[in-house]
Design brief:
Blueprint: H1 4-7, H2 17-26, H3 30-33, H4 35-40
Length: 44
């Protein structure tokens, strides 16, 4: 069921790969603060 508040919302678009890369370049501490995520990453 959609409420009237939800009906007017735009869908949220996920960030692009370029935006993610830019964010990580600007925040090199990110992975130091997200150690559990590092363990889950699979980098080819």
């Amino acid at each position: 069921m959609t409420t009237s508040a939800e009906a007017g919302k735009k869908p949220v678009m996920p960030p692009t790969a370029t935006q993610v890369a830019e964010y990580l370049r600007e925040h090199p501490e990110f992975f130091n603060e997200q150690t559990e995520l590092v363990a889950e990453l699979r980098i080819p």
